[in-house]
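Ticket 4471: requesting a sanity check on a complex prediction with zinc ion. Repro inputs:
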Amino acid sequence: MSNERLELQCKLLNETVGKRNLYDGYNCEKCKNKGQIFYIRGQEVVARLCSCTSTRKNIALVNKSGLKELLEKKRFDNFLETENWQRAIKERAKLFIDNGEYKTFFIGGQCGSGKTHVCVAMCGELLKKGAPTLYMLWTRDARALKAVSMEREFYERIQEYINVRVLYIDDFLKVMKGTSPTPADMNIAFEILNSRLLDPEKITVISSEFTIDELLKIDEGTASRICENAGPFVINIGKCVEKNRRMKG
Ligand SMILES: [Zn+2]
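Returned structure tokens:
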């Protein structure tokens, strides 16, 4: 084929419009949403993957994580850090991501102290690194699991939480005011955490209104396993009224 014809063929291929944006809403001018870029190598037209491929993979991961809306609002760069203890939390969370040696992160204690914020920000960083991540809101998702009466279906559904590379459990073991976690709650916690915490490939991020000491009283087995695995990444926020005051004045 003559060079001119090769160039024409290449140009036509590159001008063809693809449909990948219809799946993820991401528009790429470079490949016109085909995911491929054509070029001439020797005497033929060949294709390479467009750089938007990794962006699209990331969008798919975010969509699947259940964290999409939270990720838009809760990032490291907008984490409130006016107090020393807030700065300390953020530093520890960033260290956990950068260091990578420990696979379990626990933050417990007083509500309204930015626990969810810092954990979501961590998930955002892990997603950027390409790690499949899943958000488990205990009050919603554990209840859904408890509602499954068939044992087989229960084990099928719980596998999702056991197997995903990164799991963030928000409001771990939270129950209605005035009640305590039931044996069914403890069973779900055990099923999910027991095998995850033994697997060095899996990262588990947990936030809870309970401090680790309170958890030890509720479910010693699971809580002590969290302690062992998280090492320096167990953070307890003391019950201090100041910390929960959203308005200062
Ligand atoms: Zn592209």
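Notes from triage: The longest strand covers residues 36-41. Leaving this open until the requester confirms.
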